[in-house]
Amino acid sequence: MTDTWIRSSIGRADQHFATRHSTKSVLVSIPHIVAGTRLLDLLPLLEADHRIQVVFTNPEADENWQATHDFLHAIDGTVLPWAQARRSHFDLVLAGSVRGLDHLAAPTLLIPHGGGFGQYRHWRPPGASTSPTQLRTGLGPDQLMHEGRVRVDTIVLVHDRERELLAEVCPQALPTALVAGDIALDRLTASLPYRDHYRHAFGAADDQQVVVVTSTWSPNSAFGRLPDLFDRVVTELPRDHYRVLAALHPQIWAHHSPWQVRAWLADALRAGLTLIPPDEGWRAALAAADHVIGDEGSVTGYGAATGASILLTHATGRPLLPGTPTGVLAERAPRWQLDQPLAPQLHAAADIRDEAGLSSLIRGLLSSRPGETGQILRRTMYRMLDLPEPTRAVPVSPVPLPAAVMS
To answer: Is residue 3 pLDDT above 80, yes or no?
Structure first.
């Protein structure tokens, strides 16, 4: 992304071009696609307000990920070069990570992605196989503190247990904590009454079961460990009874490229696999799903919350934080036995789900404020903007039907 400055609706030098004057400026700082999709969930809370002007930037522009560049420009908003954003004035910054925040002098709201903070309790630096593991939660002082001060004004937490964890690992940041719940879960929940619409959009017939196969990234992920993951599933499940959808972590797309992903999955696509684009569509797929096959990533947890049965792939070996959705799934959900037929395992997983009440349990672990997140976040953002909150109802929109699927 170029550092050449552009004309901007928030730039003082360009105000003589403005149709709306005296607007409050909001910068949406998007470091990568995963954070970007979560931040876009916040923007309907600011819609239809002529007092607000929203612009975007990429604080990791120096890393020049093509996928993030494409994602930002698909939004169709003003995208400020990072050098320009650093030198501009804003009334509020919405951030998906702490990257670059030390260079922005504005009230900042930090929102997590991927099912919240604190999924993994222990971490060992790469190449240090014999050193002690370190506490790594996303809530530690290495992330939230800089030169003795908290980097952000408001840290959004999805669950009360994260507040307890924050008090343990970074008590200095506790006054900034806001338990608001999970807006991605609220939108997914709002989508469930329209399940048939999502199923039909993915090409599923009424008598087919929808199976979502999901993988996070890294060599230890489901797709990293099993290059033939999707070939196995589409080969084992009869095409006339099952519709198989693939949801890969955006980092896989960003690092390896969309062309390469499609090339790797070419045989599975020819055999009937439907590939979900990396930016949006995974929640629509989960709303349609009867079954989810996945690793210990957050999409698997969201899948459990929809009522789909869960069949886990291999154990990653990473110690998971007890009481988190991924931790509980790792303990209670069955694992795919690769040497056994797949279809019976899916149906056995459905029985386990029903007997254990796994869906309602995971929903309760994903959010402490179900259905309330939009109200809490809108109230908070308007307080930080020093504007009266609108009186109209807070929108809780179902996720869009998949705009494009690859099959």
So the answer is: no
